[in-house]
Amino acid sequence: MVIYDDIMYWLVFIFAESHPYSDWIRGILGGLVIGAVFGGALVMVYLERKFLGDIQSRIGPNRVGGRYGVLQLIADAIKLFTKEDIIPANADKWLFIGAPIVALTSGFLMVAVLPFDYLLINGSYYAVNVTRMDISILYLEAVSGLAVFAIFMAGWGSGSKYSMLGGFRNIAKMIGYEIPLGVSIISVAIMAQSLDIVEIVEAQDFLWNIMIHPLAFIVFGICLVADVGRIPFDQTESEEEIIAGWATEYSGMRWGLAFFAEYLHAVVGSFMVALIFLGGWNGLPIVGNLYIPGIFWLIIKTIMVIMFFIWTRGALPRYRIDQVVDLGWKCLLPLSLLCLVWSTIIGLVFG
Amino acid sequence: MTHENTQITSPPSPSEILLHLGPQHPLQPGPFLLDLKIEGETIREAELKIGYIHKGMEKVFEDRTYIQIMPLTDRICYLASNANNDVYCRAVEELLGIEPTPRAKYLRVITNELNRIQSHLLGIGEYTTDVGFLTMFIYMVRERESIVSLLEAITGSRLNHNYARFGGVANDLPPNYKSMALKTLGEVGKLVKSHDEMMSSDSIYLKRTKGVGVLTDKVASELGVAGPPLRATGVEYDLRRIEPYLVYDDLDFKVITQQDGDVFSRVKVRLLEIQESIYIIEQCLDQMPSGPYKQHVTPYITRPKVGEVYTRIEDPRGELAMYLVSDGSNKPYRFRIRGPAFATAQALPPLLIGTYMADVAAIAASMDSCTSEVDR
Amino acid sequence: MVLKNYLLTLRNVYTKSVTRLYPEEIMELPDAFRGQQHLDMDKCVGCGICSQVCPNNVIEIVKSGKWYPQFDNGHCLFCGLCIDFCPNGALSMTKHFELCSWDRQGTIYRPEQLSVPNKAELEGRTGGYTK
Fold first, then answer.
1. CA–CA separation, B213 and B354 (whole Å)
2. Structural domains in chain B (count)
3. What residues 313-342 of chain A have any CB closer than 8 A to a CB of chain C?
4. Which residues contact B165 (CB under 8 A, 6 or more apart)?
5. What are phi and psi of C38, to 5 degrees?
6. Does residue B13 form part of some domain?
7. CA atoms of A277 and A137, how far apart (whole Å)
8. What is the dihedral of CA B366, B372, B373, B376, to 10 degrees?
9. What is the DSSP letter of B172?
10. How many other β-carbons are positioned within 10 Å of the β-carbon of residue B366?
11. Domain carrying residue B100
């Protein structure tokens, strides 16, 4: 829409660049992006509690903030702030304190390259993101590996046997799942002939990537659920055997930050799925945008992917850790190599 | 090699950890201590210690009159309280020399079977949380609510029933009970069947449970394990068939067995037994005679004759038995309870050696032991 | 493979939830429900049988004109034996179960307190079981 494009242009270029306080303005806009991302994770937590309640024949929060309990998360955050902050005597203090910080950092670094829209302003195209890199897909892969590091810091630094077992399980799982995660994305990038995420989305203006390359979608989806650590792959924090896994010794807002980082990772992961496989800001497959701004399409698709993750959480049991490692090395790694073969075939046939 | 309770014999070497699945743990239905020596993720040695919830029930019962003991036998295992009441009542009735009225026999069978259904539902529900299937727990508990409401309509209380009296029962059925019960039981039966089909076809669940924690029939018979763990190994041992009490010889039901003896079979036996119990209740509601439901006057001071008696019942967990010695006064001389969960708890530690940590939760929960009954 | 799981859970989204919204809605209690006992002072003869059958020594016979039972709700099991064995039917069951108090003295119910209609019946919070 013309008015929307004009507003964005004015906001980004005129107001931000040639204004005397442009540095301050850009800082405030960056803060707004962080706030929006926080808001996205809060929405996901709320959706999870309500939708999981629907699956399980119960209602979720319904007391705080009216009939639908929208302010329940604020009440929980206030409660977490007022709890006692305990650091165990056996703990390695700097590792213990640093683990949630590293986890959140990796989440926010990933947000830095996610594009939200692609606008035609005054004859040239501009992408709405914080930074534009040529290799954004590889950068996303690398930074999501930091989250593994954070969980191991938490597990080792807590000084308790349960946390250590949780940390070991996470490392064992992620060693097997990083490779299929990367290879499936590379096979999609080969078809779009660029590693820039904006180019990959722009290459989907006629057909979505999920229709051309469904195998990569399946491999990437399973590896993403394993990377984030949700059921059926949440052995690192399974309550039954190792009490809360790597987060056993955390209390108060440190725990809140650790789990917030996990939800943030899940939201960013669903953004990636919506951008790379579901067409991003191009609306429907053949019809196009239908005059609605692209950012609304992107948000709707992300919410659909999030609901599918929550549905999976409600429906499936949990794997054992050796079965998870088996699945990664024996099943997903050959499938991801098949993805490469498939995208080469598509490239040769269709040019 | 005899099947003994294993012990941790040496301190852990540098590559092993000694982990306490200790008295407080989210996995347990009650406090017990399970010490595990773990190398990596595999278990090398295991030791089980009980006694954290010993209340001294048998000594307390020596100081109460026979009718005062009746509400306290509910609390031996709070999930199978009707079975506890019934076996105690039959023991005292044998010493007193009286028989319950015909209608009371049918009422006791109905409440026994309802009790069995709700205990199995909760046992399966707790087991599925340990496998990671959190939604199934809520579905099982939701089904259990309907059954518990049916029990509440007859006895007045959801969990501790206190229903049997010497020579009869405490309350009669309320009006319109038969139609309400048949409707609820039909719905519960359909839902349990669909859950059974789902669990048998779920590939993640089958991978977690098939071939895990196999208990052979020889070992189970030697240890005195009875109930679903024994019937899952292929032995057809059900006290309702072997030594029929109340009206079980007039009713038509099958004894459910499976062949493998692993975790999957034990849970499958429980799921099928729920459906069989629903069939028994429907028959009872059809066949029940009218008449008095208790003796004309139930005395509140009972003085049984001098003697001793040993009665057994098919508890949801196995074989529950009571041994009662009376010396002619109004309080028992010796009261001994043989709890089924004690035998299944003994069978647990040798099954855990060589398995993974995640299997400990699945195997322990599939045995469905009630710690309150282990310790009494 | 795992398809039945997804279908079953999706079907459950459309069924009604089973949460009870206590304390706004109270659930239906059956007629046989064992709540707080009610004493009919005309029928009671002070025989003391209820005190003898109680498993927990909850009932104490006190003098208030004649001799009547007094209940200690802090230790009561609500087993119903006192009601079953009363020879004249002076004790009966009500559906009152919200029995908290702020101090220990409030848990001991004297005979006069037991013989009047309790708060639950006055407010109509007893539910009914009329299927």
1. 10
2. 1
3. 314-316
4. B70, B89, B294, B298, C84
5. -125, 135
6. no
7. 13
8. 160
9. P
10. 27
11. 61-375
Closest CA to B139 of B150, B127, B149, B151: B127
In a domain, B40, yes or no: no
Domain with residue B127: its CATH number is 1.10.645.10
- Domains parsed from chain C with CATH numbers: 28-123 (3.30.70.3270)
- Sign (positive/negative) of CA torsion A178, A180, A183, A187? negative
How do residues B102-158 score in pLDDT, each as one tens digit? 999 999 999 999 999 999 999 999 888 888 888 889 999 999 999 999 899 988 888
For residue C131, pLDDT beyond 50: no
Terminal C-alpha separation, chain B = 31
Residue matched to tokens 């090398």: B44
Distance in angstroms (rounded) separating the CA atoms of residues A307 and B47: 44
Which burial class, exposed, middle or buried, applies to A284 when counting CB atoms under 10 A from its CB (0-12, 13-18, 19+)?
Answer: exposed
The yes-or-no verdict on residue A133 having pLDDT over 90 is: no
Q: Any chain C CB within 8 A of the CB of A292?
A: no
Considering only CA atoms, which of C93, C35, C52 is closest in space to residue B299? C52
**B99 is written with which tokens?**
């028989």
The two structure tokens encoding residue A12: 């980004």
Burial zone of B175 (CB within 10 Å; 0-12 exposed, 13-18 middle, 19+ buried): exposed
Domain ranges of chain A: 87-350
Closest CA to B62 of B376, B304, B321, B330: B330
Comparing alpha-carbon positions, the chain A residue that sits nearest to B365 is: A240
What is the model's pTM? Answer: 0.89
User: CA torsion angle for B3, B9, B13, B16 (degrees, to 10)?
Assistant: 40
The B-side interface with A (CB below 8 A) comprises 17, 19, 25-27, 41, 128-136, 138-139, 142, 202, 204-205, 207-208, 356-361
HEC-encoded secondary structure of chain C:
CCHHHHHHHHHHHCCCCCCCCCCCCCCCCCCCCCCCEEECCCCCCCCCHHHHHCCCCCEEEEEECEEEEEEECCCCCCCCHHHHHCCCCCEEECCCCCCCCCCHHHHEECHHHHHCCCHHHHHCCCCCCCC
